[in-house]
Amino acid sequence: MSSDRAPRPALPRDRIAVLITAAGRGTRMGGEMPKQWLPLSGRSVLARSIDAFAGLGRIVVTVHPDDMDHAIGELGGRITLVAGGATRSDSVRAGLEVLEGSGITHVLIHDGARPLVSASTIGAVVEALAEGAEAAAPGIAVTDALWRGAENVVTGFADRAGLYRAQTPQGFSLPTILAAHRAAAEAAPDDVELVQRQGLAVRIVPGDEDNLKITWPGDLERAGRILRMRGTDMDVRLGNGYDVHAFGPGDHVWLCGVQVAHDKGLVGHSDADVGMHALTDAIYGALAQGDIGRHFPPSDPQWKGAASEIFLRHAAELARSMGYRLGNADVTLVCERPKIGPHADAMQARLAEIMGVEPERVSVKATTSERLGFTGREEGIASIATATLIREA
C-alpha cells in the first residue's frame, strides 16, 4: 500500500525545497472553482498534494493572484506562497527565484493537481539526485497503441516504442533548473523539456499509475476511490473511559442502562451507572471533548438523579454531528457482585439502542478483582471502557 508521507531524504533536508504549482485555472475541469481548490474526500486537492511532502523540506506554492487570500486562509503558516505568472513556466520561475540564495541545493517541482503522489515516487526522485543526477523525473512507459485522430475518427498511428507518460515531482539541482528557466526563449509544458534544451540528461525513475493529474471531472471521482482503497481518507479515533461509584443503601443498581437487583445501591450525583459513565467518557475522549463533567456539571442541580442515558445519548449525537460513526465500544465492569453474566445481553442491547448502533458493535463483560482492593471488598464497582470512532473524510 502506498504511503502519503515522504520518506527520510537521502539529501540533507534543509537543502531540499518542494515547489508546487497551483496558479492555473483548470478550465478543462469546468465549474467555477479551479481544480486545485476542489474538495477531495474532505480536503482540497492542493492540500493533499502538499501533505504528500510533509517533513521533506521547505515547501513553496505558486498560486494565482486572485487566489492569494484563499490560499492564506487555507494554507498560510505552513508554506511559502508566491504569486504565479501568466504561464506555468512563469510561475515556476517565480518560485525558483524565491529559493535562490536560501541555501537550497535541490528542488522538486510538482503539479498541485497531483494529490496522490506516493512516498516511493518522491523517494526515487530524491535518491536519483543524491546519486548525482542533475535532473530526475518519474515516468511510465506507454503500453497502449497510439492513434492520431480528428473529429472522433482515427487518422493515423504512432510508434509507442520508447515513449513515457511524464509525471511529477521532477527533481533538479537548483542552479541547473534556475539557469534553464532564465535561458528559455519560450515556455515549455514541463521542466524536463527546459533542461533537455540545455543538453542535460534527465534520469527516468519509476512512476505510479495512482499519481494521476486531476484534469477532467471523472479524475476527481477516481482519486476519491483510490483514497478509499488506501484508507488514508479515514480519521480513526480511540478513547478510554474509567469510572468508579461506591455502594450505598438501596435494593438495585443501574449498570449499562439495565436495572439489576442487589442488596445495595450505587452512590452518585446521577443514577451512578458506572458502566455508562465510563463509555460516555470514552466517546468524549475520542472526540477530545473532555468528560461528562464538562457537558453536565455535577454542580448543576438539574442533573441530580438524572438517567445516565442522557449523557451517553449526548456523546453519541455529538460524535455524529462531528462526522464520526462508532466502530465499536467495549465496556468492562469490575465487581464481585452482582453477577453481570445474566444481564450482559440486555446491557449490550440497551447501550446500542441509546447510541443508535448495531448491537454487534457493543461489548459488555465483567471481571472480578480476585477479592483485592475496594471492588474485592465490595465497597463499590469500577468500569473501564474503550470506544473507536471513525470518520471517512
From TrEMBL:
The EC number(s) this enzyme carries: 2.7.7.60, 4.6.1.12
InterPro entries for this protein: IspD (IPR001228), IspD/F (IPR026596), IspD/TarI (IPR034683), ISPD_synthase_CS (IPR018294), MECDP_synthase (IPR003526), MECDP_synthase_CS (IPR020555), MECDP_synthase_sf (IPR036571), Nucleotide-diphossugar_trans (IPR029044)
Binding site for 4-CDP-2-C-methyl-D-erythritol 2-phosphate: 243-245, 269-270, 291-293, 367-370, 374, 377
Gene Ontology biological-process annotations: isopentenyl diphosphate biosynthetic process, methylerythritol 4-phosphate pathway; terpenoid biosynthetic process
Database matches in Gene3D superfamilies: 2-C-methyl-D-erythritol 2,4-cyclodiphosphate synthase, Spore Coat Polysaccharide Biosynthesis Protein SpsA, Chain A
The keyword Heme belongs to this UniProt entry's keyword annotation: no
Site residues (Transition state stabilizer), renumbered to this chain: 28, 35, 269, 368
Family: In the C-terminal section; belongs to the IspF family. Belongs to the IspD/TarI cytidylyltransferase family. IspD subfamily.
Protein name: Bifunctional enzyme IspD/IspF
